[in-house]
Design brief:
- The chain is globular, with a radius of gyration of 22 Å.
- It is 33% helix and 20% strand.
- The protein is built from 13 helices and 17 strands.
- Helix 2 crosses helix 3.
- It binds zinc ion.
- The site of zinc ion (ZN) has 5 residues, from loops.
Length: 428
């Protein structure tokens, strides 16, 4: 495959890329305009051929989007057995409990729903996904289904799985054994939910257990942490301290940390010390949190979103994820990371000029850091030929128009392509 006349995010001018054997072989400033006559223009439906020469016509090429936080076992279940009427996190959890008892989980059905969601995400440029999977569901059909899907899609779309104790580790009888079972089956990351455990002690003990498991299985850590408005929900300090003590920071993600939006600044500034010392990463889910949080209070209402702007300014890595696509917690969603980013930029006060120039990082390189993708990710000669081509000339245009992904290529093969919609407007 040969891509011509593209802009590469973060570089000046126009570039051309040569791809073969699944890797970027040559990335160089545009040199051969004579070949353009034979190239397929990027706004036409491409022939499905990995040998095509494509004229990007000045459009923006960047590494693929990363979905760092979703629950593939729950996607596309909204309304079953009923909708979440209060819109709270806790009614979401109890509705999921009802679903698990009333709709017997079947491996084939879970895989089918997850595949539908992954197809949507692929259409929007996602190639790397980290999914939580509920391990407090005793049949373990969700774990089995997603492990199978991870292997079936390896090389096409990359999936990491997190053992997620939806109902708590210590607050579920046999919870520790369920976590161990999931790790033994080959799940990639250890998850947790300390703020939902029965007591403060259980929450703290669950975090110590999570890191014990991570060390034993040499696994990454990704914990739902302080996903509530209670400013006394302070498990993040415990999580970061454990990560610091064990040298596990770069392999640790604190997800949500909504309570940080309620912490007083004095406590936050003290907390920052261990966050920076530990080097842990963060994940926020702005569409999910703006919907679920702030439900128990009168006006004025808090936003229930972690401090995306402040953490980023402090040099900490923050990625944005969607969490849900039509499930008991969040009834809508399309799989489009740009939609999540759009919400995050608004609720995070992140529409300054400098903010906009870095914004796409939240759904690309920052997510790649959370997933510890390392040399597997990035537009560089010799690396896997994974990229997307947006129907936009720069970051600003991509954000303004939530531009479609015209082409998504993974390991040098076309994963998805799209014909941009063009409207005709009259008499203005
Ligand atoms: Zn989640």
């Amino acid at each position: 495959m040969h891509i011509q006349q593209c802009r590469i995010r973060g570089k000046e001018g126009l570039w051309e890329l040569e791809i073969s054997d699944g890797r970027f072989q040559k990335i160089r400033p545009q040199q051969a305009p004579a070949e353009l006559a034979t190239a397929v223009p990027a706004d036409q439906i491409f022939a499905r051929s990995d040998q095509d020469c494509i004229n990007a016509q000045g459009r923006l090429l960047l590494p693929p989007f990363v979905e760092p936080h979703i629950h593939l076992d729950c996607v596309l279940t909204a309304g079953q057995p009923h909708y979440n009427m209060s819109g709270t996190l806790f009614e979401g959890i109890s509705t999921w409990d009802e679903y698990k008892t009333q709709v017997p989980l079947e491996v084939a059905a879970i895989k089918d729903r997850a595949r539908q969601a992954l197809r949507l995400m692929a259409e929007y440029g996602v190639q790397f996904v980290r999914s939580h999977v509920d391990v407090t569901e005793a049949s373990f059909k969700g774990v089995q289904a997603l492990l199978e899907l991870r292997e079936e899609l390896r090389g096409t779309m990359e999936i990491q799985l997190v053992a997620f104790p939806q109902n708590g580790i210590l607050s579920t009888r046999g919870g520790k054994e369920l976590m161990i079972r999931a790790m033994e089956m080959g799940v990639d990351c250890v998850g947790g939910i300390p703020h939902y455990e029965f007591s403060r002690d259980y929450g703290v003990d669950s975090l110590k257990f999570i890191f014990d498991l991570a060390e034993k299985y040499d696994a990454m850590v990704d914990v739902h942490c302080d996903e509530m408005d209670d400013e006394q929900s302070r498990y993040l300090e415990v999580l970061a301290t454990e990560a610091w003590e064990r040298g596990w920071g770069p392999r640790t993600v604190a997800a949500h940390t909504c309570a940080m939006g309620s912490y007083n600044d004095s406590y936050y500034n003290k907390l920052l010390r261990v966050l920076q010392a530990s080097g842990i990463h963060f994940n926020a889910c702005p569409t999910e949190s703006i919907h679920l949080q702030g439900r128990t209070e009168p006006y004025p209402k808090r936003r229930g979103i972690t401090r995306i702007k402040e953490l980023s300014s402090a040099g900490l890595n923050v990625a944005l994820g969607q969490d849900s696509i039509a499930d008991p917690w969040y009834p809508i969603g399309t799989g489009n990371p740009l939609r999540v980013l759009d919400m995050g930029l608004h609720v995070g006060h992140l529409l300054g000029y400098q903010d906009i120039s870095h914004a796409l990082d939240f759904i690309s390189v920052n997510g790649a850091r959370n997933l510890c993708l390392g040399d597997q990710y990035g537009i560089m000669e010799g690396r896997p030929a994974d990229f997307i081509l947006l129907d936009a000339k720069d970051d600003y245009e991509a954000l303004r128009f939530l531009s479609p992904v015209l082409l998504s290529v993974h390991n040098g093969k076309i994963l998805a392509q799209k014909q941009p919609a063009r409207a005709a407007v009259y008499d203005i």
